[in-house]
Amino acid sequence: AMNKRIAVLAGDGIGPEVMEQALRVLAAVEQRFGVTFKTDAADVGGAALDNHGTALPRETVDLCRESDAILFGSVGGPKWEHLPPEEQPERGALLPLRKTFGLFANLRPAIVFPQLVHASPLREDLLEGGLDVVVVRELTGGIYFGTPKGREGDKAFDTLVYHRSEIERIARVAFEAARSRNKRVTSIDKANVLTSMVLWREVVTEVARDYPDVELTHMYVDNAAMQLVREPRQFDVILAGNMFGDILSDEAAMLTGSLGMLPSASLAEGSFGLYEPSGGSAPDIAGKGVANPIAQILSAAMMLKYSFGLDQACQAIFDAVAAVLDEGYRTGDIARPGDTLIGTDEMGRRIAEKV
Amino acid sequence: AMNKRIAVLAGDGIGPEVMEQALRVLAAVEQRFGVTFKTDAADVGGAALDNHGTALPRETVDLCRESDAILFGSVGGPKWEHLPPEEQPERGALLPLRKTFGLFANLRPAIVFPQLVHASPLREDLLEGGLDVVVVRELTGGIYFGTPKGREGDKAFDTLVYHRSEIERIARVAFEAARSRNKRVTSIDKANVLTSMVLWREVVTEVARDYPDVELTHMYVDNAAMQLVREPRQFDVILAGNMFGDILSDEAAMLTGSLGMLPSASLAEGSFGLYEPSGGSAPDIAGKGVANPIAQILSAAMMLKYSFGLDQACQAIFDAVAAVLDEGYRTGDIARPGDTLIGTDEMGRRIAEKV
Ligand SMILES: CC(C)[C@H](C(=O)O)[C@@H](O)C(=O)O
Ligand SMILES: CC(C)[C@H](C(=O)O)[C@@H](O)C(=O)O
């Protein structure tokens, strides 16, 4: 029987309380699917800064290295906002984790469950029947890590650099994803201005030849920022570099109006990956038992699929979430009059029961 | 009496027909305000590619140099899309114009006239009472023009570089704009990842000390892309570098739902500037007499204010547009049942008459 080791990094804010619910749902998966998970917790983010003086302690990295996947909560909060930007919990934990573990492929679904169309800031007619877009973002290259990067007198600079091989492997992730979806990839670039993006367009076009069943469109990033707002359902898979993907995945997430619902996966070559909610640590509601645990629970579901190959178990969790929504249960962030308002714990329990 | 010279670059697609209406409104301004404008036309964009083999012929640059301002239409279309991205009409005309004339400050208002709230893709409650945001974008620096930029083997790269003085002068434009508006500046950066953006944040913070009456907030670009969708009215002046400003100004423009209404100004030090609609050349409707000329007309209005100091004449045009909208007249792009649908020519005539 399958026996997987999971590094559990709950982090700050609502991280610990929503993580508890994700672990509860994983326990239900163990029972139903006859698998076992060994979970080990470690400090990360602000909690780690407080306890170890760094957002990503060596012990935490070691634990991740011994594990088959990382289930990540969320990090950051007002307590650490006085620190220089590069030492803050988010930056200080996420960037080194991505680089250390080669997590080059970030998958961020922007899903509007049909039950939650009203939560979107968009007019309802633009989302009729829901929305299902995934942003595939390159996560270990581009201007985030390019060198040289620094200061010289009164100037400061960063380098946006892409190697053909980096573009190729992230493009393949996007085309593979499109194959199991609606077979459309929109590749984002700024080839009219940036040399690196001319190469991006070239390589993506080459990779597309191996996927004749998938339709490829190229779109400038500024136009994409418009089109997402104008007609989000025109997209299936959005493929983008690190910086453009950062911006567009957040824009797409907000279009759903329910950040508390959105999971994400950051994948290495092979089966290792880090899974985390798209939203933040929400310090304002932390500890009150009202946070929506669904993003964390669906992040665990993505882990089952992408790192452990348990596609059925993943689907079972998504179905369980939909079933609980169908019954009218909502946490505060997605509730409206007439819904049954429940807390973090009850939402987790109900989903676990359905699994 | 004032006598100004205007280089008129109508360009492609709907450019010529909406430009005709802007010139008509300028003629009305001449009459009412006792000023004279000398207008000279020159080729630009696709039309220039066809006639001179380049999107920005020397003659056109020379004319602009002898003029007090450039009134620009729009460029581009399917006919020239087979060209390499860097030779295409938009890229080939706009970037050299910006650099040659030092047009470092791009002002792009995202205005929702209260009469047109329904055109927005956002829920009406998010725009109650309209929207009035302006994006102040740095236009001659950053990753657009930074060097080195090129290819080396299987790699391609661009450089994002900012000099303290470039940040300072664009920040001053933003703070000055805020002073005559709602006294809030949101400065966009990615200081948690980019060294150039750490400098950006530093310099903007310094400049803010000279404007104690203006409230400054710093916001990461990914968060800004979200906040624009979530609650656009939280913004007054958005200050951003070239690339981030490109993306966010387009996103903000689309939130209004009426691109055909939005003007823009690109200013040099001193009084020279280029004025153009925010939307594109709309080749699909070109030549049909149905295009909305308001963006072009309001671009001329911005020229009167920023290059000629004719604030009253600028205001007269904005008022004329509002009056015509109040009477229920609409071009197709902003019409809905019950409105009086009119064409490009009639819209221009009615606005000119009100002036
Ligand atoms: C915290 C920050 C460094 C990070 C990024 O920009 O990648 C975050 O915005 C994200 O998208 O995960
Ligand atoms: C055409 C292109 C080079 C240009 C830009 O990126 O600046 C355009 O998108 C704009 O915003 O004016």
Short key terms for the protein model shown above:
homodimer; 355 residues; alpha/beta; ten-stranded mixed β-sheet; two-stranded antiparallel sheet; 11 helices; 14 strands; globular; binds 3-isopropylmalic acid; magnesium (chains A, B); cytoplasm (chains A, B)
Short characterization:
Chain A has helices at residues 15-33, 46-52, 58-65, 89-100, 164-179, 195-208, 221-230, 242-256, 294-306, 311-326, 344-354; strands spanning 3-11, 36-41, 69-74, 105-112, 131-138, 150-152, 155-163, 184-189, 215-220, 237-240, 263-267, 273-277, 329-330, 340-341. Chain A has 355 residues and is α/β, with parallel strands linked by helices.
Mean pLDDT of chain A: 96
Strand pairing plus helix content of chain A: what structural class?
alpha/beta
Helix fraction of chain A by DSSP (H/I, runs of at least 4): 25-40%
* Uncertain parts of chain A: none
Separation, N- and C-terminal Cα atoms of chain A: 19 Å
What is the 3D form of chain A? globular
Strand content of chain A: 15-25%
Oligomer: homodimer
* Rg from alpha-carbon coordinates of chain A: 20 Å
Counting DSSP E segments of at least 2 residues, the number of strands of chain A comes to 14
Question: Strand order, biggest sheet of chain A?
Answer: 2-1-3-12-11-4-5-10-8-9
Q: What order do the SSEs of chain A take from the amino end to the carboxyl end, as H and E? A: EHEHHEHEEEEHEHEHEHEEHHEEH
Q: Main sheet of chain A, how many strands, which sense, barrel? A: 10 strands, mixed
Count of individual helical segments of chain A: 11
Bound molecules: 3-isopropylmalic acid
